[in-house]
Write a structure and sequence with these properties.
The complex is a heterodimer of chains A (429) and B (149). Chain A has helices at 39-47, 55-59, 67-81, 88-119, 124-130, 132-153, 173-198, 240-243, 269-276, 282-290, 303-323, 373-389, 397-409; strands spanning 4-8, 19-25, 28-35, 162-163, 166-167, 212-215, 226-229, 244-248, 255-259, 262-263, 340-348, 351-359, 365-371, 423-428. Chain A has 429 residues and is α+β, with helices and mostly antiparallel strands. Chain A has two domains: 4-37 and 378-428, no CATH class; 39-202 and 209-377, Cytochrome-c3 Hydrogenase, chain B (Orthogonal Bundle). Chain A is globular and about 65 Å long. Chain A starts with a strand and ends with a strand. Chain B has 149 residues and is α/β, with parallel strands linked by helices. Chain B has one domain: 3-Layer(aba) Sandwich (Rossmann fold), CATH 3.40.50.1450. In chain B, β1, α1 (20-28) and β2 (37-41) form a beta-alpha-beta unit. In chain B, α1 crosses α4 and α2 packs across α3 (96-106). At the A-B interface, α1, α4, α5 and α6 of A face β2, α2 and α3 of B.
Chain lengths: 429, 149
């Protein structure tokens, strides 16, 4: 039996922390596990007994990078339980806030976490000195996202302005004018970013992904939609628990999801693009075409291009909403407590984020369930790693470890929704 | 650089004493002269760089974990006074040190950088801020006011 042990201290530049364990025996991968700890589970317990209107603010604290996603899925689940519909300019404002978060999150991933992989740097900070022009452009786009979130959410991190039925306060038209001005420049920078990342050298890798993403009749789904699968099936959000079943995995507090009985499906940018690319804004579609993305992209390394295209879409759609914005009569529609169960899902930057709440007649939460994108993607990321590294086990250890890191970063896992740190251990025997 | 000074609190509300920097900024609201900008941050370097862009002075407050007594406040001046960024980087682990590295690479550092580090005692999920850190938050807010005079 051949036997060697590889240890790598940390898996850097993924969001949050966790551990990857790879056990190699006689040239084959005997075991491969991404082990993570998951605060969403902690929060599910914390939410029981709280008032029906508290989950949007409480769950927003789960993730510093995508609090809006948690707020939106929570609001929609509770509003659905209580028979409330948020439409018109209030829904548009929610979309606008969400686009701000997409811009912030994707830009951070593209420039500081993902691009350095393709240009041979171990961090975005190291890359910045040599690629200043591009990173400056990234900062300008990021700033537009920050301002959008701060204007609508009350502050750039952990927005506090969202409530059931709408917002505590809605912006005046004139408040959005300077944001629009910055977004117009950001849209140009986002287009240049697509061209920049499309020119990277991509490993020739494709996986036979089974995609899951929300689908909306007229939008590139982000705020709401019907869960759709790349095999052509779809189901209402209310049927989520029948289709997506989570199971406990040894060595991890994270639950692992199966879709219709099969593990290893993918949610996130590649899934959204595969299922909804025709609903991108015309400008974003054109950018995707110029980047030769095709209608479906199965190369996870090229997900950086898809995220860049989504940033163009977010800037473009945000501007469309601001241009047509009329101030709503009230900042929120009334929401009264009642007994019921509600389901809500939205597209967090990293993929579909599902919430379910059961509310008692006293208005208190009796049951909460949160299914974050990273726990859905965990099995698929492990499959990517197997497919990628098994034929390359002869590589030097450092090279192999770097490849594992890249394969994980391709999916931008928010292991932060989970843990403190991702430690990579390769046992090769 | 002649821009207005900025005070930036870094932290997370979900992690006990890690919220110390944010709480200092919240205490300072309405107590400083108008040109001073107050900002909260998760530590995202791209946000920090844009937050202190053009400021003649940036005061940054964050929780630290050095093994000192919880509530201990340390003050450092200038980017070189802070430890360099470590190898373990994730966007949640990214922080001030990475922002300084990025700022140096891009020539985007404030003319003067003052750092207040508040030693935390409990960073547990959804833990309350501990009493010594709560007291340190009040002391630090006062120190920031003095530094801006």
């Amino acid at each position: 039996m051949t036997h060697k042990t590889l240890r790598v201290g940390a898996l850097s530049r993924v969001e949050g922390e966790g551990a990857l364990l790879v056990d190699v025996r006689d040239g084959r991968i005997a075991d491969l596990r991404l082990s993570i700890y998951e605060p969403p589970r902690f929060f599910e317990a914390l939410l029981r007994g709280r008032a029906f209107d508290e989950p949007p603010d409480i769950t927003a604290r789960i993730c510093g990078i995508c609090p809006v996603a948690y707020q939106m899925s929570a609001c929609q689940a509770i509003e659905s339980a209580l028979g409330v519909a948020v439409t018109g300019p209030l829904r548009d404002l929610r979309l606008l806030l969400y686009y701000g978060e997409w811009i912030e999150s994707h830009t951070l991933h593209i420039f500081l976490l993902h691009a350095p992989d393709f240009l041979g740097y171990d961090s975005g900070m190291a890359m910045a000195a040599d690629h200043r022009e591009h990173v400056e452009r990234g900062l300008a786009v990021k700033k537009a996202g920050n301002e959008l979130v701060a204007t609508l959410g009350g502050r750039a991190i952990h927005p506090v302005n969202v409530r059931l039925g709408g917002f505590h306060r809605v912006p005046r038209r004139q408040e959005l004018a300077p944001v629009a001005e910055r977004l117009r420049r950001a849209r140009e920078d986002a287009l240049a970013t697509v061209a920049w990342v499309a020119g990277f050298d991509f490993p020739d890798v494709e996986h036979d992904y089974r995609f899951l993403a929300l689908r909306h009749p007229s939008e590139y789904a982000i705020l709401s939609g019907r869960p759709a699968v790349s095999d052509g099936s779809s189901f209402p959000v209310e049927d989520w628990p029948e289709h997506v079943v989570e199971e406990q995995v040894p060595g991890s507090t994270a639950l692992r999801a199966r879709l219709d009985g099969t593990p290893g499906y993918l949610t996130g940018a590649l899934a959204r693009y595969a299922l909804n690319s025709r609903r991108l804004s015309p400008l974003a579609r054109e950018a995707a075409r110029d980047a030769c993305l095709g209608e479906v992209c199965r190369n996870p390394f090229r997900s950086i291009i898809v995220r860049a295209v989504e940033v163009v879409h977010a800037c473009d759609e945000a501007l469309r909403i601001i241009d047509g914005y009329t101030e709503p009569d009230v900042p929120a529609v009334p929401v009264e407590p009642a007994a019921g169960v509600g389901h809500g899902a939205s597209e967090a930057p990293r993929g579909t984020l599902y919430h379910r709440y059961r509310i008692g007649a006293d208005g208190l939460i009796t049951e909460a369930a949160i299914v974050p994108p990273t726990s859905q993607n965990q099995a698929r990321i492990e499959m990517d790693l197997r497919d990628l590294i098994e034929p390359r086990l002869g590589l030097a250890r450092a090279e192999l470890a770097a490849l594992c890191e890249r394969a994980i970063r391709n999916h931008d896992p928010c292991i932060s929704c989970s843990t403190h740190f991702l430690d990579l251990r390769l046992d090769v025997r | 650089m002649s821009g207005d000074p900025v005070v930036i609190g870094i932290g997370s509300d979900a992690r006990g004493d890690d919220a110390a920097g944010l709480e200092v900024v919240r205490l300072l609201h309405g107590t400083l002269p108008p040109p001073v900008l107050l900002t909260e941050s998760s530590g995202d370097p791209m946000h920090l760089i844009t937050a202190w862009d053009g400021a003649r002075m940036a005061i940054v407050i964050d929780a630290v974990c050095s093994g000192a007594e919880p509530g201990t406040v340390t003050t450092r001046r200038g980017p070189a006074s802070l430890p360099p960024a470590g190898r373990r980087r994730s966007s949640h682990a990214l922080g001030l040190a990475d922002a300084i590295a990025l700022g140096e690479a891009l020539g985007r550092l404030p003319a003067e950088l003052v750092f207040f580090g508040i030693e935390g005692g409990d960073f547990g999920l959804d833990s309350p801020i501990t009493p010594p850190v709560r007291a340190a938050i009040r002391r630090t807010a006062e120190a920031v006011r003095r530094a801006l005079r």
